[in-house]
Amino acid sequence: MKLYYGLSAFLALLFACQSPGQRQPAAGQQDDSTGASATPPAPSVYYKRLKGALAGQPVTMHLIRTGPAAFDAWYAYDKQGIPIQLFHNVTDSTQLSFTEYTTPDEDNTFKGILSANDTYKGTWAGKNRSYDFELREDTTGAVLFQVFTSADSVRLLPTHPKSPLGLAVCSMVWPVGGADGPSLALIKKALTPLGAPEEPEKIVRQPIDTFLRDYKAVRDDVDTSELNKGTGASWNWDAQTETRVVWNTWPLLVLEHADYSFTGGAHGNYGSNYTVLDLARQKVLQVSDVFKPGSGPALGAALEKAFRKKYAVPAKDPLNKRYLFEPHIQPNNNFYITDKGAVFNYMPYEIAAYAVGQITLFVPFEEVKNYVNEAYLK
User: Strands across the sheet with 283-284, in order?
Assistant: First the structure.
């Protein structure tokens, strides 16, 4: 399953900030913190919107660098308006390489070189086909962002020579230009947790401090005999929080808020929430802003059609036979729109088993145009 590959890059970043002596606490050491908190200076972290052509079609990519070897990206064919998530292949040290997160049986890849003049050039490869691409930075009609990152860790048992480690990393984008004052204020408000100051340096620390505080609270639950035998790996907890740009073409801005955490057990938990802003109308959009009353059944039918196509489910097979918990899919509030349609996102366990993964379904406005408010139909 394709999860948060960027975490390994953050691990590299974290430990690069530590001396060898910090990685393994000495006997009797009392300080539980590794002392590693990193916010790389510009231009080592950044957001860039790139435009160019792929297979003769115009495309737009949103590229974020959150550390020396940590990248995230989304891209879309402009005429289709369907965002596709890209995962950084951290094991490829010779070029900037991404794998598309599309369907379970596809492994489409971008492989190329990101040059100093903000040009990403290389080859896209899919099943029995490949195309050259060349993308250049283009900020026309785009909000400009600065990237903030932080990482920290603590030893669960400071005096134990085999103490487990808790690691938390966070990155986020913060608007710095490309739009008027009210629009920038709206974006900042959407990025700021309730009750927190609009200060990105503090916002990026909040989930880290919360996670590590909760981690230290379970110290008394640890069976040190497991650690002595080398069987205490489940106490090595980690968490990753990221805010990424999915769509950034005036007047629509879409932000992904992605979370991953491992707190013991068989596997970690993850999921993404989305925020879509209409900067022209100065609103964070809800489903009711985009779709007319009574649109639920039509959206449900379109979501079922999208699911069957994406996962190659035969029309005669009930969705709850092998795939979903229920026979039908209902629209939820975890959605966003582009200029061509709406995307609904379902986290693991929400409508299907964990093994199915996060389910993201695109509904073209053309299929449900009678139920779309005219403001969002072109």
Answer: 144-155, 165-177, 238-249, 252-262, 269-278, 283-284
Model pTM greater than 0.70? yes
What mean pLDDT do residues 139-153 have? 97
Spatial separation of the C-alpha atoms in residues 98 and 47, rounded to whole Å: 16
> Mapping DSSP to helix (H, G, I), strand (E, B) and coil, where does residue 119 land?
strand
Domain boundaries, given as residue ranges, for the chain: 1-21+37-284, 287-376
Closest to 256 (Cα-Cα) out of 72, 78, 104, 120: 72
Structure confidence by residue, pLDDT tens digits, 72-124: 999 999 999 999 999 999 888 889 999 998 766 678 999 999 998 899 999 99
- Asked if 39 and 122 touch (Cβ cutoff 8 Å), the reply is no
Token code pair at residue 236: 């090595």
The answer to whether domain 1-21+37-284 and domain 287-376 are alike in fold is no
Is residue 271's pLDDT more than 50?
yes
CA distance 34 to 36: 5
CATH architecture of the domain with range 1-21+37-284:
2-Layer Sandwich (3.30)
CATH of domain 287-376: 3.90.640.20
Distance CA 136, CA 115 (A): 10
Choose between 104 and 56: higher pLDDT.
56
> Coil, strand or helix: which one is 42?
coil
What number of H helices and E strands is found in the chain?
9, 17
Is residue 35's pLDDT more than 80? Answer: no
